Structures are given as C-alpha cells and as structure tokens.
Amino acid sequence: GRPEPDLMQWLDIVALGTVCDVVPLTGLNRALVAQGLRVMARRANPGLSALADVGGVRELPEAYHLGFVMGPRVNAGGRVGESLLGTRLLSTPDTAEAAEIAGLLDGYNRERQEIEAAVLVEAIEQVEGAPGAEDSPLVLAAGEGWHPGVIGIVAGRLKERYNRPACVVSLEGDVGKGSGRSVTGLDLGTAVLAARQEGLLVNGGGHKMAAGFTVARDRLDDFRAFLETRLREQLGGGPLVPELML
Question: Looking at residue 239, what is its pLDDT?
Fold first, then answer.
C-alpha cells in the first residue's frame, strides 16, 4: 500500500558519490551526474544545501564543486573527525542540524588540510634528502605519528610531484600503516600482494593504482627494496615515461 518511491530525488547524492569516486563521466555515469546536478540545484536536500553554503557555492553546482568543495568536506569526517557525520548530514531532514553538521565537517576539513600540508612537507624533505632517490622507481616516506587519515592523500601528492609510485607510512610503536598510489603502467597492488606473500608485511593488498598495507618497523627497509625490485622488473629495464591523457 505504500506509494512508489521517487528515486529521481536522490540523484543529487548519486552525482556526489559518482564524482567523488573518480568514476569516468561517460555513458550512464554522465547522464546520472548531469541529472543529479539539476536535482542538487533545487537544494531540496538540507545536508547538501548546507554543505554548499559552508563551501561558498553560490552558483549552479558543477562536477568541480562535488569533487573539490563538497566531497572533501564529507570525507574529512572519516579522516580526522567522526565518520558518521557524513551519513547524518546527507540523511537529515532538519535544516538546523544540517547546518551544524556541515559546520563541523568544514572545521574538520580545515584541520585535515593543515595536517596533510605538514606531513607533505616532512615527506618531501625526507624523499629529497635520501641518497639515490632520483634513480629509484619508487618514492617511499615514513614518519613517526603521521596521521593515518591523510597518508593516502599525501601519497597521491608525492606520486604527482615525482611521477613515480609513492608510498607513505605512519609509524607507531613496532608497526607502520601505509598507503600507496601508482602511475599508469606500474601495478603497485600486485607488488604489495607479492610482498605480503613473501612475509614482508603483516597485511596488505590493493589494485594497479592504489594499495594499503601494514608493515613491521624492522621490515620497512626490506619491503622498500622488494618493491623497488618488483617495479624495476615491470619496467623491463626501460625508463618510466609519463603519459598525458587527453
């Protein structure tokens, strides 16, 4: 006896998720995002409306706003704050609660940016001060107490800066939690899985472009050497050539 649900009204959240997952905006995905942006422009969802307000989005929303303004604020809750805040924000019908949560997420996002910037500076100093770093197919930085919520982002920044696979490890006690990002043509996930099978990791996995792992502090150098060897094998002795996608 219930009425048919209006699924079109949720396309704004579909658009946000599609863009923030870096899905190619072609075919059906493009259609979903295009319609979702129209739904979002109506500002019927209190959470998304509040998120746009704290992000300073005054014009009609575009994919840019989803990926670089609204998405990072939702994501910041899980990185340095409370992961449940994103769900509460997107599902609340209360405009006052939405404004309060959006304000919290905006604060967490600024905190995340500050933490990320500090870790990135330390990581760059470490990479550029390492002997022979320019000849390695891999960039790896490890730091004591680096916030685990930002190491994946920092790995992505290092990958873009040096055009090589990059891993960032947060050390605490006897173990390190690591995150890696790769470039086109080098399969980082396979190399990390092989390292786990060799007993160099406590845990680890991933896919071609990204990986996560847990490594004992005293095996970090062995892990680095193993990855370098595996990545050199993938290159087949040739140089790593950047690819420009148009």
Answer: 76
Match 């870096």 to its residue by tokens: 22
d(CA 196, CA 213): 9
Question: Which has the closest alpha carbon to 61: 39, 92, 30?
Answer: 39
pLDDT at residue 95 in the model: 96
Q: How many Å apart are CA 10 and CA 93, to the nearest integer?
A: 13
Q: How far is CA 56 from the centre of its chain?
A: 23
pLDDT of residue 136: 86
Residues 231, 24: Cα–Cα separation, whole Å: 27
The DSSP line for 2-59 is PPPP-GGGGHHHHHHHHHHTT----HHHHHHHHHHHHHHHTT-SHHHHHHHHHTT--S
Asked if residue 187 lies in contact with residue 176, where contact means CB atoms within 8 angstroms, the answer is no
- What 3-state DSSP class applies to 182? coil
Joined tokens for residue 209: 């472009």
Against a cut of 0.90, is the pTM above it?
no
pLDDT, one tens digit per residue, over 114-128 is 999 999 999 999 999
CA distance 117 to 186: 27
In the numeric block, the tokens 């600024």 are attached to 110
Element spanning 156, H or E: helix 151-162
Average pLDDT over residues 175-204: 93
Which among 161, 157, 202, 156 has a CA at the least distance from the CA of 180?
Answer: 156
Model confidence band, residue 133 (pLDDT cutoffs 50, 70, 90): confident
